[in-house]
Structures are given as structure tokens and as C-alpha cells.
């Protein structure tokens, strides 16, 4: 069986690492990867969740695994994803599942019209809290008896409330207008 491909839209994202590979804070010796957290609203993203359930069932059947014996399923209740101090991240609540999707290869990232985004465009357009189109592959890791999620592609869908602060600054001259010494007061 090949990977189970799952696609959806209107999926809120967090912790996008789409331009450069990121090491895992939880597993510092792990190989750095591109990645993202998909926050699946249990009602709004029910079709995507149903696709994931069907993929998990197909993988478990093919591998001869009872679903309750799999060490890691591809999604978890978002409310269990917490900061080091035990408080939940913004957007992680009982109404959502969280999916960690990673890739060794840089995923395809597109804008609203489907155009492939440059690294600079990705950094300014795709942010924690926005809503995206997502394409993932779900597959078994037989040796570990778990089900993994590979990030294939992300596409900007629409803006959302930004997680963790303010908008990214992309123009230093306008940000520091009136503060940058342009040398005009020199003789």
C-alpha cells in the first residue's frame, strides 16, 4: 500500500517551519526537519479528520495492528499540547485535534492563487494562526509501530488571529523611520 494522501482547506496552523529545517526541542538529537502543526477543528475540519481516521484504519488493517496497540496516532487532543510551564498554547483547546506534520524535503508552499511562494513570501504570508490548505501523507513506521505524518504541501487560505504576538516586520526603513541616521546631518 502506498501512503495515504489527505487534503483539506480552512485548517489553522501553528509553528510553521517551512523555509528552514528546525530541530525538535523535545528531541534535540533528532534530525532537523521542515514542519508545521495543523489545528483541526472537530466540526469545521470534520472531513479532514474523517480522511485521517480512514487512513489510520487502512494502515492498521494492512499491518495487522489493533488500533489501540499503535504507539502513536497521527493526531492528539490539542488540549494536551502545552508549554513547558504547563499552560496551553493559544488555539490549542478541547475543540481541536493537533497534527504534527514534518518532512525531510522542503514542502511545496503556495499563495492564495496557487503561485509557488519564495522564502521571503513564505515568511510574511504563512504564520501561526492563519488558515491554510494542507496536503499530508500518512504512513506506518513498522519498526516503531506508529503512524507518521509527512507534510507534502501548504497553501495560504485566509488570515486569522496571529498566535504569539504581532505581525512580522518586513521593512526596516519604515519600521525605524525617523530613527535611522541617514547621514544628512553630517558636513
Keywords:
single chain, 187 residues, alpha+beta, OB fold (Dihydrolipoamide Acetyltransferase, E2P), seven-stranded mixed sheet, 3 helices, 7 strands, 16% helix
Structure description:
This protein is 16% helix and 35% strand. With 187 residues, the chain is an alpha+beta fold. The protein has a seven-stranded mixed beta sheet with strand order 3-4-2-1-6-7-5, covered by helices on one side. Strand 6 and strand 7 form a beta hairpin. It starts with a strand and ends in a 12-residue tail after the last helix.
Fold blueprint:
Layout: E1 4-22, E2 33-41, H1 46-63, E3 76-77, E4 96-103, E5 108-110, H2 119-125, E6 131-141, E7 146-158, H3 172-175
Parallel strand pairs: 5-7
Antiparallel strand pairs: 1-2, 1-6, 2-4, 3-4, 6-7
**Terminal CA distance:** 74 Å
Give the domain tally: 1
Structural class by SSE content: alpha+beta
Helix content: 10-25%
Identify the CATH architecture: Beta Barrel
Form type: elongated
Number of alpha- plus pi-helical segments = 3
How many E-type strands? 7
How large is the share of residues in beta strands?
Answer: 25-35%
Task: Specify Rg, calculated over alpha carbons.
Answer: 19 Å
User: Roughly what is the average pLDDT, rounded to an integer?
Assistant: 88
Low-pLDDT parts are none
- What is the strand arrangement across the widest sheet? 3-4-2-1-6-7-5
The CATH homology group name: Nucleic acid-binding proteins
The CATH first-level class comes to: Mainly Beta
